[in-house]
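Project standup — Tuesday

K.O.: blocked on the structure for the chain from last sprint. Re-posting the sequence here as requested.
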Amino acid sequence: MDSNFNSPEDKAGADDPDLDPYEINFLPRFRSGRGPRGPFVNSSGVLIGDHIYESPDSPLSNWTEETDPAVMAGSEWVHPYKDIGFLTSENLDYFEKGIAPQGGIFMHQDKDVAYRAGEDAHGEESR
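H.V.: unblocked you, prediction finished:
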C-alpha cells in the first residue's frame, strides 16, 4: 500500500471522481441508486474504483488452486460508475442511449455452462 495513506479508506477518499476516464454519461434513469461515485473498500478489504487493479488483499493477488472464483463475484467487485466495462459499445448504447443489448448472442443452446448449477453449498447434487 502507498505509504502516503494509513488505510484503504484514506486512499479511497483521495481519488477525485470528477476526473475519471472510465465514467460515462449515464442517462438519468441509470444514475439514481447506483452507489458511491468515489472509490470504496469492499468486504474483502480491496479498494474498488481507484483504477490500480492491484491489491495485496485481493483474491487475484493470492490465487491458489483452492480459490473459488465465485469469491470475486457480485456487485462489490464492480464500481457502479467507474468501470472499464462501461466503455464497450453495448454498454455505451445501453447506459447512454437506452438501446437494450441484442439478446442471445452469448447463448449456447446445446451446452450447460451454469457454474455448479444443481449443487448445494457442500458441492453435492441437490434433489
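K.O.: great, moving the ticket to review. Confidence is low (pLDDT under 50) at residues 1-6. Helices lie at 8-14, 28-31, 89-97.
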